[in-house]
Amino acid sequence: MFKKVLIANRGEIALRILRACKELGIATVAVHSTADESAMHVRLADESVCIGPPSSTESYLNIHEIVAACEITGAEAIHPGYGFLSENAKFAEILEAHGITFIGPSAEHIRTMGDKIAAKETVKRLGIPVVPGSDGEVIEFSDAKKICDEIGYPVIIKAASGGGGRGMKVAQNEQELQNALHTARSEAGVNFGDSAVYIEKYLGKPRHIEVQILGDGKGHAVHLGERDCSLQRRHQKVWEEATSPAITPEQREEIGNICAKAIGDMGYSGAGTIEFLYEDGEFYFIEMNTRLQVEHTITEAITGIDLVNEQLHIAYGDGISFKQDDVSFNGHAIECRINAEHPETFVPSPGRIEHYHPPGGLGIRVDSGVYQGYSIPPYYDSMIGKLIVHARTREECMARLKRALDEFVVDGIQTTIPLFQDLVCNEDIAKGDYNIHWLEKYLD
Ligand code: ADP
């Protein structure tokens, strides 16, 4: 196993990775900006290196400084976490050129999946169901019209290089299509430096369901079931659950096996997530994330498998520590993303945490980098922690979640805990009866 790993991230995910390394006897190197000198990931790591000023472009995204930190400390590998450099193919290539292991897939796989048109073509060829739409880029209105007449309206025009929920336009009919195609192309060019767009059928009330996979890079892969992340605000996930209240064990096995086979055939290495929209019993691929995700914890809760431990083993060349048949899904898990934001306006609320008391007890996991007296810097993402609750059934899980939220004390700043206290008492949520538009409507 690696002797020393550098963690190129901050906050709760840096801690999460550090914990897996410690359990494997791997020494850890934290990197941090000047704003994060007193952060928990810096305090708990064996060594730490300051890599720049607060702005992420000059610190957590500064490849030169991160490679230098690796060379100074003698770290053999880098775990990128999520966000920052985790899906940067160039970064993976630079590490390879320096003889440093990137804990993640190959640069080629990152690049393919980062281009939505190439990703869709690739997974379609590998047998994964996709949303009906254009075969690749659409430039001319006449071509767009032909495709839309075939698939039917409404349609969605998406930027090939888009991400984070940006670069999408919906057209309800032919009149809207002409305008939408034109605007989508010019906006994509301005925002993403690539004007390529493609067309898909717009699904009216889908759920967001994603499948967790692990590939060993040698043609073998497994799936760890699905997560339902339909509760979203501005395309950002807010509440996630595993398993999905909407799908059956048979559907889980079927889509899981399709994904695992495709990932194995690709020769994919490491952890990844295949994201789908799900409507009327059908799965439609939307994108693949070639990294560990925020919500990986709920999969860990119901399978008992440590995904970061597996990532480390795969990157070292040891393969996956279990077989598909060893995977079973036990009980139900829910994750709430706790943000330092006003619970109604979602305005960020950085500042000093005066009192902090996380909930505890059976089935409770809190992944967070904050502590009492810690000052949340204003420069980064507002997520300050994740509350993960596991129980034997969904009903028990909801009751436990409600109890845990009532116990959670974070004073001095605003958090989104009150939003979750409302959601956990909502009837639709209790029934699992929601889709990707539910939360936006609720908040309106
Ligand atoms: P991004 O990379 O920007 O997150 P995605 O392709 O993952 O883009 O889509 C983000 C969100 O946009 C989805 O979760 C869903 O809410 C909406 N969306 C994407 N494609 C469609 C579609 N074909 N029909 C309806 N909604 C869609």
Give a written overview of the molecule.
With 444 residues, the chain is α+β, with helices and mostly antiparallel strands. It is built from 15 helices and 20 strands. The protein has helices spanning 11-23, 40-44, 63-73, 89-97, 107-114, 116-125, 141-151, 174-192, 249-266, 296-303, 307-316, 394-407, 417-423, 427-431, 438-443, and strands at residues 4-7, 27-33, 47-52, 77-79, 101-102, 155-159, 168-171, 197-201, 207-216, 221-233, 236-242, 269-279, 282-289, 332-339, 351-352, 355-357, 364-368, 375-376, 383-391, 409-411. A hairpin with a 4-residue loop joins β9 (207-216) and β10. α4 packs antiparallel against α5 and α7 (141-151) crosses α8. The model has no long low-confidence stretch (mean pLDDT 97). The chain binds adenosine-5'-diphosphate. Adenosine-5'-diphosphate binds next to β12 and β13.
What are its keywords?
five-stranded parallel sheet, about 25% strand, binds adenosine-5'-diphosphate, about 450 residues, alpha+beta, globular, 20 strands, 15 helices, eight-stranded antiparallel sheet
pLDDT averaged over residues: 97
Q: How far from one another are the termini?
A: 51 Å
Q: Give the tally of β-strands.
A: 20
Write down the overall geometry.
globular
Query: Which percent bin holds the helix content?
Result: 25-40%
Q: Provide a count of the helices.
A: 15
Point out poorly predicted stretches: none
Rg, rounded, reads 22 Å
- Alpha-beta classification: alpha+beta
Largest sheet: 8 strands, antiparallel
Oligomer type: single chain
Strand order of the largest sheet: 13-12-9-10-11-14-19-17
- Small-molecule components bound: adenosine-5'-diphosphate
Strand percent estimate:
25-35%
